[in-house]
Amino acid sequence: MQQKNRFRSVIPLLAALALLALMLLCSDDAVAGAKRGLSVCAELIIPSLFPFFVLSFLLNDLGLPAYLGRGLEPLMKSLFGVSGAGASAFVIGISGGYPLGASCIADLVRRGDISARDGNKLITFCNNSGPAFIVGAVGVGLFRSGAVGLGLYAVHILAALVTGLFLSGKKCTDHSSPKVWFADTSLSRSLPEAIKRAALQMLTVCGFVVFFSVLTSLLDALGVFSAIYGHIAAYTGYELRLTRAVLTGILELGCGIGAMEGAALTPVNLAACSFLIGFGGISVAMQTASVLAGTEIKISRHLAGRFLNACISAFTVYTIASILL
Questions:
Q1: Cβ atoms of 248 and 255 closer than 8 Å
Q2: Which own/partner pairs from 260-265 qualify as long-range (CB within 8 Å, at least 24 positions apart)?
Q3: 233, 227, 208: which is closest to 286 by C-alpha?
Q4: Which one of 1, 37, 97, 272 counts the least CB within 10 Å of its CB?
């Protein structure tokens, strides 16, 4: 058993050493990838997420879970089997973007506003992409249409709700009042703390984006990506740009969407974008694992929810686009 555990610990070490060697051998590609990641952070990630991070922490500190918990308790219990305070995680998750929903859920669990059981249900459908990214970056930035972005956003929310209904499991039969607190704090005290916490969270998110951008660049330099997406394109008949974007987006969402620049407004391209937005990518999964640390909320629940959301979103968008386009 001890030898098996030692073998498991050696594999990550060897992988890290191999990555270090690759970065030294392909330093130009690594630097280019880091610059690309920093550009994505500066032009897209920080402007679209940081204000929402601040507002999320501020609203939680000022007692939003308590107010939503009291008003939405019956609805949340009957549909998803969770306490009403969890409604704040859904609202913040669909308005702020990854990984803000997960951060809100973790905060609620740590403060005792919801149980770890509720947290494991909420994480399946409350950690979503936000309107700033879907409407701004995908709709306007990629397809030059705000209407397309709004449509993708509406489908994303619908898929989240359907995912919650599928994965919430046994419904709650306890109809007692929610155990949530009303904040005894002030704006002058909460706002500086919210900004400080948001800045630290933003730094973590950007770190993941830059790292995965470097990793993608190195895989491109080795020819690994080109071989894989070339085979996928040959097998499926889809264009190389699409298969490359999907493969990149599975690693890192922002880079995957960026790789689709210039794509035509077709059902297949829209469905691919919707799938990537719904799944979020491995980078988002790791960001989520980081904010959930120490809460007993399982990252496997998040991954199950994201995959189901991605499949529902892609199927819905493809069906609608096939009729309208």
A1: yes
A2: 260/142, 261/142, 263/142, 263/143, 265/143, 265/145, 265/148, 265/325
A3: 208
A4: 1
Q: How far apart are CA 73 and CA 87, in angstroms?
A: 8
Q: What pLDDT score was predicted for residue 66?
A: 67
Closest residue by Cα to residue 61 from 99, 119, 108, 105? 108
| Site of tokens 């210039």 | 262
Q: Are 93 and 60 in contact (CB under 8 A)?
A: no
- Tens of pLDDT, residue by residue over 120-129, are 999 999 999 9
**The two three-digit tokens of residue 185, written as one number:** 């704090």
Please name the residue that has the structure tokens 């909320």.
297
Q: Which two tokens stand for residue 74?
A: 């019956």
- pLDDT, tens digit (0-9, with 9 covering 90-100), for 39-81: 878 877 788 778 877 887 787 777 776 677 677 778 888 888 8
Hunting for tokens 């990506």 — which residue is that?
225
At position 170, the amino acid (one-letter code) is: K
Long-range contacts formed by 221-230: CB under 8 A, 24+ apart:
221/26, 221/29, 222/22, 222/26
The pTM of the full predicted model, rounded to 2 decimals, is: 0.83
Record the tokens describing residue 261, joined without a space: 């620049």
Q: Concatenated DSSP letters for 137-175?
A: IIIIIIHS-HHHHHHHHHHHHHHHHHHHHHHS-SPP---
Cβ atoms within 10 Å, residue 177: 10
